[in-house]
Amino acid sequence: MLDTLNKLRPSDFPPIRRALVQTLQVNLGYRCNQQCLHCHVAAGPNRTEVMPGDVVDLVIENLRDLPFDTLDLTGGAPELNPDFRRLVETSRAMGIRVIDRCNLTILNEPGQEDLAGFLASQEVEIVASLPCYLEENVNRQRGKGVFEGSIRALQTLNRLGYGDSAGERRLNLVYNPQGASLPPPQSDLEAGYRKILSENYGIHFNRLLALANLPIQRFGSTLLSLGQFDDYMNLLKQSHRNDNLDGVMCRSLVSVDWQGYLYDCDFNQMLGLNLQAGANARPHLRDLPRLTLADNPILVADHCYGCTAGQGSSCGGALQDHT
Question: Is the pLDDT of residue 61 over 60?
Fold first, then answer.
């Protein structure tokens, strides 16, 4: 895989600082039952990195002792971590909001038959990848049969009360472009998703989150291989909007890798750009209670333009197009 870091630094991205930290975003490992072309983690079935139980214990300890109100679980497929359910149950018992960034097909895997029911029983918020409502496009981006499996998983979640606008079990879908382009307006795209998924499959959901692809890991390597990297970076820079800076996700979260090391965001984690905290060049979860994060400078590089281009992009979707 081709590395893009040397093409992202040095950077002229505007300096930004962290505001109030509310979210602990934890990557439970890079193992996944899928291997998607747009994946910024380069996750897949052959990855072996999985957060061990003693590091999960540190996550729980920090949630108990520090004023986080949200635990955002990512992967790979975070549900494949053996301690996933223990972490969810303990966090929910503390009143922490838990988000599971789910690829949907994991709900159909052998041994995971009760996973959807578990998520529902814990009132876990699901943010589910569905990069298009057309079968051909999804399978091209994510693998043969993924669309059918995703639809079955969504129907299961709907039967459990997910996606009901009047209920507590939130189901948000995630759109990613097929290639080196920015997402279309989120509200227009959401209307299209609602129409097609409802009419064709009887599926409903709460919101659609439109995310830009960042030029790192598998997607960045693909851009380099196709000779499209520089053109995509030019598109991101030309589409930059300063008014998106206040809403970027890194201002309100801390990202944790499978070993417990800290980063400003999940994208920096994939590039090995550690959170900077004074003399501590590689802070860890065990250091977190002693760190001053408010107003701390965030480490930036040119990939950050992916979060500020056009309507903006963050863990919560577009920054300028919320409906």
Answer: yes
